[in-house]
Fold this sequence. Notes:
Distance between the termini: 70 Å
Number of domains: 2
Largest sheet: 5 strands, antiparallel
Structural class: alpha+beta
Strand order of the largest sheet: 3-2-1-4-5
Amino acid sequence: MQLxxxxxxxxxxxxxxxxxxxxxxxxxxxxxxxxxxxxxxxxLRDGEAHRLYTERIAEELGDLxxxxxxxxxxxxxSLNEIAERNILKxxxxxxxxxxxxxxxxxxxxxxxRMDEQLPRxxxxxxxxxxxxxxxxxxxxxxGTPLGDPLTDNAYDExxxxxxxxxxxxxxxxxxxxxxxxxxxxxxxxxxxxTDQVEDGGRATAIEEGIAALIFAHAKSYNFYxxxxxxxxxxxxxxKQMTAHLEVSSQSVGQWEKAILAGFAIWRQVVxxxxxxxxxxLRARTIVFIAEPQQTSEHGS
Length: 300
């Protein structure tokens, strides 16, 4: 039976019209979830003695499906549409399904002049410019200084002075970073509209805002140490912030990968670990390669 066929058969048995029926269906969803949990509780308590466990679970899931069909019908949404939307959402969040080819990734500046393209590979290092408690740091990309020396600009040191690492991660994983374009002087000036919209001040401010947003969120989660997933609401906020930009084509899953990759490197660099940040835009990778020696570069 197809989902829409089931929905039609299910709503044919509804007894309560209008708003009353909707309220009953919504309450029914909550009630059936409780029934499902109750059956699982009995299974935990009684084990194999609960011989009807599988049968009762199937029954409770069927009741849940009936209420889902009823609620969605009352909102004018078919079960087929709900299922299709959910699969698309999951694909965007977690990647393509088994057996499907991964979508091709074209860099946004592929057709632009070579001198207006982000470098396809790069090596970055962090240099510490003084030995005080509030070190100034500067990022060097392929040996060239990237922007001005930075401090945390905070009363309590929290490592935000290393936040340019996030911009490098966005460039590597997403192929997008107006901030890196500006710092490397590879803005797409030959196309005035692209230069204004994609590489201009608003896009740069949005990216800096994203860096500040994810940093503030990560502070509450030990800077994502041991974290495998980023909060969905945060990812959706980032998507909304960039909805009018070329990077809107990136999935929340790719944003999550970029954010986690950036913090993985940030956590190592903030410990004054010597090494290099290596990125490959075509492969969508960015990694930290630690130097073999254990001596610190702090104060060098």
